[in-house]
Amino acid sequence: MMYWSELAWLIPIIPLISFVVVGFLGNKAFKRIENGGYFAILMAAVACFLSLMVAFEILTGGYPGGTFIQSMNWMTVPGFTFNMGIYIDTLTALMLIVVSFISTLVVIYSVGYMHEEGEKKRRYYAEISLFICAMLGLVLSSNFLQMFIFWEIVGLCSYLLIGFWNTKPSAASAAKKAFLVTRIGDIMFMLGLFIFFVWFQGNLDFSYIFNNVDAFLGGNDLLTLGTFFIFGGAIGKSAQFPLHDWLPDAMEGPTTVSALIHAATMVKAGVYLVARTYPVMVETPNTMLIIAIIGGITALMAATMALNNPNIKRVLAYSTISQLGYMFLALGTGGYLFFHTQETNAGFMSGMFHLMNHAFFKALLFLSAGAVIHAVHTEDMRLMGGLSKKLKITSLVMLIGCISIAGIPPLSGFWSKDEILAVVFETGAENPLFYVLYIMGILTAFMTAFYMFRLWYMTFAGEPRDHHVYDHAHESPKVMWVPLAILAALAFGSGFALFFGFSEAIQPTMFHPHAETWTQILEIVFTDVLTYLSIIAAVLGIFLAYLMYRKRSINPDVFVATPARRKIYGLLLARYGFTAAYDWIGLKVVYGVAKAVDWFDRKVIDGIVNGFAIVTIKVGNIVRRGQTGFVQSYAALVVAGVSIIVILLFLFGGVI
Amino acid sequence: MFENFPILSLLLIVPLIGSMMTFAAGKHAKAARYLALVFSGITLVIATLIIMNFSLSAPLGTEFQFDEAYDWVPMLGISYHLGVDGISMLMVFLSALLVFLAILFSWDVEERTSSYMGLMLLLDVGVLGVFTALDYFLFYIFWEVVLIPMYFLIAIWGGPSRAYASIKFFIYTHVASLFMLLGIFALYFTASPLLGAPSFDMIEIASVSGDIGHALQLIIYAALFFGFIVKMPMVPFHTWLPDAHVQAPTAGSVLLAGLLLKMGSYGIIRICVFTFPDITVEAQVLIAIIGVLSIVYGAFACLAQTDLKKMVAYSSISHMGIVLLGIATLTDLGMAAAVFQMFAHGLITAVLFMTCGMFQHKAGTREIPLLGGLAPKVPVLSTVMMIGFMASLGLPGLVGFVAEFSVFTATYDFFDLWVIVPIASVALTAAYYIWAMQRSIFGSLTTKIDTEHIHDAYWFETVPLAVLIGLIALFGIYPRLVMDIIVPSIPRILTGVI
Amino acid sequence: MPLPWDFIIFLFVAAVTIIAALAVLWSKEIVRSVMWLTLAFLGVAFTYLFLGAEYLAIIQITIYVGAVAVLMLFGIMLTKRRLLGGGRDE
Amino acid sequence: MALDYSALYPVLVMVIFAAALPAVNLVAKSSRSLAGVSVVGILSSMGFVIYYMLNGYPAMMGGETVLLLRLDVFAALFALVFQFVALYVVLASARYIEKDRHQAEYFSLIMLATSGMIVVAMAVDLISLFVGLETASLSSYALVAFRKRDKRGAEAAVKYLVIGGMSSALSLYGISLLYGITGTTNLEGINSGLAAMSSGLNPAAWLAIAMLLAGFGFKVAIVPFHQWAPDVYEGAPTPISGLLAAGSKKMGFVAMFKVFLVALIALKADWQILAAILAILTMTIGNVVALQQTNIKRMLAYSSIGQAGYMIIAIAVASQFAVESSIFHIITHAFMKGGAFMVVAALSYVALGESIADYKGLGRRAPLVALSMGIFLFALAGIPPLSGFWSKVFLFSSAIDASQVVDQGWMVWLAIAGILNSALSLYYYARVVKYMFVDDGPTTERLKIPLSLSAAIAICLVATIAIGIWPEPVIDLCEQAARALVPLLG
Amino acid sequence: MIAIEYFIGLSAILFIIGAVGVLTRKSAIVVLMCIELMLNAANINFVAFSAYSGNMNGMVFALVSIAIAAAEVAVGLAIVLNLYKARDTIGLDEVNLLRW
Question: What's the ipTM?
Answer without folding.
Answer: 0.89
